[in-house]
Amino acid sequence: MRAHPGARPLAAVLALGLCAAIVSCKTLPDVEPEAPPKAVPTIATTSGTLPAQKASALVARRWANASGDLKALAVMEEQATGVPLIAGNKVTLLFDGPATMREMIAAARTAKSSINLETYIFDPDEIGTEFADLLIEKQKSGVQVNIMVDAVGNLTTPPAFFDRMRQAGIRVVVFNPVNPAKAKGKWEVNNRDHRKLMIVDGRVAFTGGINISSTYANSSLFRSKNKKKQINGDKVGWRDTHIRIEGPAVAPLQWSFVNLWVRQEGGELTQADYFPALAPVGDKFVRVLATTPERDSEIYKSLVTAINEAKSSIHLTAAYFVPDQQIVDALVGAARRGVDVKLILPGVSDHSLIRYAGQNFYEPLLAGGVRIFELQIAVLHAKTAVIDGAWSTIGSANIDRRSFIHNYELNVVVIDPAFGRDMESAFNEDMRDSKEVLLEQWRHRPWMDRIKETVARLGEYWI
Q1: Catalytic residue selected from 138, 194, 242, 301
Q2: Catalytic residue at 225?
Q3: Per-residue DSSP letters for 377-424?
Q4: Tag placement on the chain: N or C end, fewer CB within 10 Å?
Q5: In degrees, to the nearest 5, what angle opens at C-alpha 67 toward C-alphas 62 and 71?
Q6: Percent of the chain with pLDDT over 70
Q7: What is the reported pTM?
Q8: In this structure, are residues 390 and 85 in contact, taking their beta carbons and an 8 Å threshold?
Q9: What is the rounded (10 degree) CA torsion for 230, 234, 237, 241?
Q10: Active-site entry in 301, 351, 383, 406
Q11: Active-site residue, 383 included
Q12: Is 196 an annotated catalytic residue?
C-alpha cells in the first residue's frame, strides 16, 4: 500500500525533531473556565456583533429542536477559545477525495479575482497536475493565484513542479523550509503547516482533511452499494471529510491564509479583492479555529470543552488517535455519566506506529465505557466529531500532540442540529462498515502487539 502523504514525511520530521534537540517538550493546557460564563454566546454578523438580547433570541430560534443546552455549550467554548460564532453561513459536507476534488475544481474554474490555496501536500501526480494546470490557466486569465505548501509535506515533490507554476505568475510559498538557509523568518523546523484550505474570490472556502493528491482518487466505498469489494493494495480507498463554506465565515478563513503568508514573509500579496462584502447565505453558526504553535491550541480546548459538556452523545472519528490523559479522562467521564461515547478509529492503517501508539489507550477507554469501532473498508483519514447531535467539528487536526502543540491547524465548528444530523448519518454509515473492539477480546490480544504498543507510545510526543 502506498504510504499516506501525511505520514510519508514522518520519518523526516522525527529525525529533524531529534536533531534539533533544542526544541523543548510542551504540555497541553488544562481546560477549565477562568470566569463565570456569560449568559449568551457572542454572535458576529455582517452588520457587527449582535446585542445580547438579539443573540439570545436568534440562538433560541435556530437551536429550538436541539438536544442538550447548545447555548451553554457555545458560551463555554467561546470562553475556552476566545473565538465568537459567525452567523449566516451555508456549509456543505463533502465525503472522500473524488467528490471533494470535483467540487474544488469546479469552484476554481469560476474564479474571477483570486484563488488562495494552502495545503500540507501538493503531489505532482495525476490529480496534482490537473489542479496545477487549472491554476496556471486561471493565473494566465487574470486571476491571482497564491499557493502555500508545507516543506516537509512536499519533501518528495520536485522543485520544478512549483517552478512551472511560478513561471506562469503564480505566487508560491514553501512553508518553513527544511534548510535553514532558505528560511526568510524564524526557522522552526518542528512546526508544520498541516492546514488544508482553498478560498475562491474571497467568497467560497473549502477546508477539512484532504490534500491535493491522487492518494484520494480511489473511492472508499462510503455509501457505495458495492461494499463486498476487497481491499487490495493501492486500490484501497481513503475515507476523509471536507466542507464547502459560503457566507461571512469565509472572511476569517481568508484572514488565516493571509496572516500565515505574512508570517512566512511571503512578500506582499498581489493586489486582488481578497475581502469582498459577504452577505448571509444560510443559517449555520460557524466558529473558525486556526491554531498556531505559540498559543494553547483553541482546537484542543474546543474539543475538550465539548466533550465535558456533552449530555447525550459523543461520536468521534479520528484518523490518528494518540490522546493525552485529559482527553481520555473526559471521554471516560462522559461515558460514566451516561453519554453514548463511540469512537471510529482506523482498522486499515497507513501508519502502524501511530496506530499502535493509539491502541495503547484502548483498555482504559473500553474499561471506562467508551465503545471503539475500527473502520474496515478504507484507510481512515477523517478528523471529525459530532456531539449531542448538533455540535460538529471538521478539519485538519488529528487527536495527537503534534497537531495540538506543533502544527498550524484549521478546524471549523458548526453548531446546528440539521448539519449535526448529516454528520450523524455519515458516522452511522462508517460504523456499519466497522468492527467493534470488545474489552475481553482486547485483553487477550497477542503479547507482540502489546510490546509494539508500548514501544510506539514511548515516541508519542513526536509522532
Answers
A1: 194
A2: no
A3: EEEE--EEEEETTTEEEEES--BSHIIIIISBEEEEEEE-HHHHHHHH
A4: N
A5: 55
A6: 89
A7: 0.92
A8: no
A9: 160
A10: 383
A11: yes
A12: yes
Q: Tell me the per-residue pLDDT of 107-127, one tens digit each, with 9 for 90 and over.
A: 999 999 999 999 999 999 999
For residue 71, indicate whether it is catalytic: no
Active-site entry in 242, 315, 381, 452: 381
d(CA 212, CA 132): 10
What's the average model confidence in pLDDT over 204-227?
79
Whose CA is closest to 107, among 209, 212, 202? 202
Instruction: With beta carbons less than 8 A apart as the criterion, state whether 319 and 346 touch.
Output: yes
Closest residue by Cα to residue 340 from 377, 374, 308, 311:
311
Radius of gyration in angstroms for the set of CA atoms belonging to the chain, rounded to a whole number: 21
The answer to whether the CB of 108 falls within 8 A of the CB of 137 is no
Q: Are strands 48-49 and 409-415 parallel, antiparallel or unpaired?
A: unpaired
Of the candidates 102, 70, 180, 176, the residue with the CA atom closest to the CA atom of residue 416:
70
User: With the C-alpha atoms ordered 39, 40, 42, 46, is the resulting torsion angle positive or negative?
Assistant: negative
Q: What is the distance between the alpha carbons of residues 143 and 138, in angstroms, rounded to a whole number? A: 5
pLDDT band at 307 (very low <50, low <70, confident <90, very high): very high
- Using the Cα atoms of residue 365, residue 367, residue 369 and residue 375 in order, give the sign of their dihedral: positive
Domains located in the chain, CATH noted: 10-80+298-458 (3.30.870.10), 91-263 (3.30.870.10)
Q: Considering 71, 138, 196, 351, which one is annotated as catalytic?
A: 196
The mean per-residue pLDDT over the stretch 295-302 comes to: 95
The 10s digit of each residue's pLDDT in 361-413 is 999 999 999 999 999 988 999 999 999 999 999 999 999 999 999 999 999 99
229 counts as catalytic:
no
Q: What would the mean pLDDT of 305-324 be, rounded to a whole number? A: 96
Supply 316's cell numbers: 468521534
Per-chain mean pLDDT for the chain: 89
96 catalytically annotated: no
pLDDT at position 445: 92
Question: With 70 as the cut, is the pLDDT of residue 22 above it?
Answer: no
Q: DSSP string of 341-389?
A: EEEEEEEE-S-HHHHHHHHTTHHHHHHTT-EEEEEEEEEE--EEEEETT
Per-residue pLDDT, 2: 35
